[in-house]
Amino acid sequence: MSMKKLDERDQKILALLERDARLPISELARQITLSPTAVRQRIARMEKDQVIKRYTIDMKRGDEEAGIKVIMILNLKGAHCKKLVAALGHLPELRKFWSLTGELDVTLLLQVSNVERLGDITSLISDHELVDKVQTHVVTQTHLDR
């Protein structure tokens, strides 16, 4: 099912579940002004059509505020994202790894405990044979986190 076939109520269900996947059917029904049965049927249809693929949790990883969030942008020597994921995937600080189109090849989201560890990881990535250029950006403030 394409997103075009989702009506306004389907979109509202998805938005509410995205904020809280544990929201009871009765509360979804109340907020959308549908019967619980109708909401249940809509959710079942979206699951069947793979609009809703899974339900997950957002787990707190220790004291995140004490860590340093870092966005690292990489230019690679060729199209080697899968090889780089294999080489860096073991790093517990690596939270996200995105392949990009355009001038930049990869964006990483890291959560490091301190500046020394950031230096170690930056050196590890910079020295990797597949990496041509590294830009490191420390996140100073989060204005929106959904």
TrEMBL record:
Domain HTH asnC-type: 6-69
Keyword annotations: DNA-binding, Transcription, Transcription regulation
Transmembrane stretches, start-end: none
Keyword set includes Signal: no
Record Pfam families: AsnC_trans_reg, HTH_AsnC-type
SMART domains: HTH_ASNC
InterPro entries: ArsR-like_HTH (IPR011991), AsnC-type_HTH_dom (IPR000485), Dimeric_a/b-barrel (IPR011008), Tscrpt_reg_AsnC-like (IPR019888), Tscrpt_reg_AsnC/Lrp_C (IPR019887), WH-like_DNA-bd_sf (IPR036388), WH_DNA-bd_sf (IPR036390)
Keyword S-adenosyl-L-methionine listed: no
Annotated protein name in UniProt: Lrp/AsnC family transcriptional regulator
Native source organism of the sequence: Kiloniella laminariae
